[in-house]
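Reposting from the mailing list since nobody answered there.

I have sequence plus structure tokens for a pair of proteins and want to know whether others read the tokens the same way I do. The first protein:
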Amino acid sequence: MRPTVEVLANTKRLPSLPPVAVRVIELARQEEPDFREITTILRADPALAARILRTANSALFALPQRVHSIEAAIPILGLTMLRTIVLGFTLADHRGDHHEVRDVSQLVWRSSLAQAAFAEMLALNANGADPSTWFLTGLLQDVGVLATLNTDTDNYLEHVWDNSQFPNVVDAERKYYRFTHIDVGRELFTRWGLPREMIDAMVMHHAHMQRNGVYRTPLMTALQASSLAAHYVVNHGKGSRAMDQLLTFVRQHYGWDTKQTEAAIEETAIRVGESAALFNFDVGENYSPERILADARDLLEEIALTSQLETRAATASGDAMTDPMSGAHNRRYMDNVLNRQIADHVRTKRPLGMLFLDIDKFKNINDGHGHQIGDQAIVQVADVLKECVGNSDSVIRYGGDEFLVALLDATVKEVQEISELVRSGIAGASVSDDAVAMTTSIGAVFYEPIAGDPLDANWLIDCVDAAMYEAKRGGGNQVSLRQLVGCEEAAATT
């Protein structure tokens, strides 16, 4: 009986390359693993990246906003959970054909990494694009192949792989299964809570091969270009038709000439080669699949023995990412996640917006109506903020009645519009049956990073905080907006 899309999407086992598994185990044995190296490994393996993303967006963490990149997920999970997840993998069934499965997985891995690297390069040259999101989408866009291969191994090898040439497997999949790995990928992306833009882009990434000329979003177009680039890279530059397709496509959509495209292809091949070299050591008898799995189980048992104590300690110290009262993120999220995101924006010179607000005359609300009404006012503000910002943005309860909002990759117009939307939304709301009215003072900053700006976000928070006090000195219930090009201008205006 042939499996359905739902059965394939239910798989908890996506094959990971044995050398990757070995390196993960080595890192997990370290008392203080290098998070940069962990990030490098996760960004190089679709199976592990999928597991991390799925867990971070699960009900276990109940995040107010879903994460769409590995870089954002790692700080949220924490070291113990991260170790558990990356060791909780299962390789493909190790029967007599496991070598063939490993060869197929390696080809898909190389293609996925090439797609991710090329998509990230396109994002770095696109206004408002998030390179980490584009990288992740490129890395996972063929995850349906891995899910199908691992769940229905014999049939996939016989009826699909042996009758097609990767990545052109769609026709063979449809002929045998009556659906394709794209359908499986759509179901997986949906279950992982990924945004519609990523789902649509993944669904359309083979559109050029299906002669479908619909290009609706920048990410969708980028993944189609990345598929063509990966096809050329994994075939070691063989096939003039693949290069001709790529040259035509990127010339039409990005205005790249032949020299620019060849440079991007060369950079993609170098990055794939570097990742291959990172894991290119002899697996040998000491690291047979069975030994790898045994080591992983042993480590998981060790982690399980300590995780309960760590969880209790974390709970006692408030070691969580969410403010329990308002449902917004808390200061720990800001320290561990937001600061990293801002640093990434500074490195890649991508603009962002930030709001800082507090409730006008909040002491009067607390003293005149009681602390319970004051708490309701804070919850009301958080609800309005979460309604006004996008899924990729962050709402943080900074302290008391103060909130910080990060608008990643926003334009100055969007910062202005969202600031006013928040101000009017809170002014139009009321608290409790007594219809207690409230207003807020909002400081807003639109920041365009330049070379040499510090990666530390504290100066930017100080700047938006100062803008908030300008709004408060003006009488409250208003927005004070600053536009900054580099931190030097910020210093001059504060």
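The second protein, same order (residues first, tokens after):
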Amino acid sequence: MPILKKKTATLAERVETIVSQTQVLDIHTHIYDTNFGGLLLWGIDELLTYHYLIAEVFRVAPMPYDEFFKMTKAKQADYIWKNLFIDRSPVSEACRGILTCLNELGLDTGSRKLNTYRAFFKKMKVEDYINLVFKTAKIRSVIMTNNPFDDDEFPVWQNKIKRDRRFRAALRIDDLLVNWEMACPKLQSWGYDVEAGLGEFTLSEIRRFLEDWTKLIRPAYMAASLGTPFVYPDDSAASRIIENCILPVGREKNLPFALMIGVKRNMNPGLGLAGDSVGKSPIESVERLCADFPDNKFIATMLSRENQHELCITARKFPNLHIFGCWWFLNNPSIIEEMTRERLELLGLSVTPQHSDARVLDQLIYKWSHSRKTISRVLVDKYTDLENTGWTVSDSELKRDVKALFGGAFEEFLKR
């Protein structure tokens, strides 16, 4: 019998296999470990009542907002399932994502039986389900969003919790910057001698607060979601706190400041979280921070598609800036592909092309499943371009590169 030669994998097959198998460090999420109780959201009803789908259902099946939000979560989920999945095909990215989750968990999406899906989740223990999701999505670690000013989260950290090492912390400081009137009395109640006027002693107390929480939760970075336009410097409380508190602590602790820019809050207040929108913001504020504080590290993502090219160019000029993710309304395959191509063409492998921004544990499955496919397409094209010049790429080099894109480059940035 003739000896059959083993088929050599094509470049596309090699890239797709490596991308599909590489473990991810998801550098920005809103999920929590089991210490945080009800803050950890998971299961089919949480998926269906995610604010993306709430906004979508009101486009096709409107009712008074307060009437919808008075319904139980299960009833809300029923309403969304009927109107977005049964009465019309679920072609949006948010809808397709739920079907991807169910499919990759081994459930029959073709049955369309919501109660069958509920029964699957009902029998799961949360600890086992976390393990299942991490295994299915191939996640090695996630970075949470940890806000001391959240009344549900604050007491958890006071209990000296035993940390799940897969869940790393990030210190969220939005309230210091955008809601100082609320943050000030809270700091006072916690024993920090601050005043509304932001004098020198108050600024030193804010620094002490940041140092205390840095020691307590050991964050990977400090972060703020900032509106549009975000302007720095100006005469606002935010600018004073950034320059006199956040950046000095960041330098001392070698902690990046994560700038997440471009949210328009409460454009439609009746929709709650679903009522936020997007806007462009001047890139000059990011440039000024990177230029004026070269000993600080910054990581940045911007919500407007129109800001992406300028942000790439800024990152070319400032090695203390690391850009990441296709945030929120940018988390659609067509835009992810465009942004990933642009970033690789301008910045090579020194970026983190995606983060999940997951608010429901299960979303790790679909967001990374979809993103891996898109990132694979871009990488196949880029490596094909290299091979067309005569430059070949080995499997070990492919693994090295994909590991960098899936969290490795970010970890190297942290170590500098």
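Reply #1 (J.P.):
I read it the same way you do. The domain at 11-415 is CATH 3.20.20.140 (TIM Barrel).
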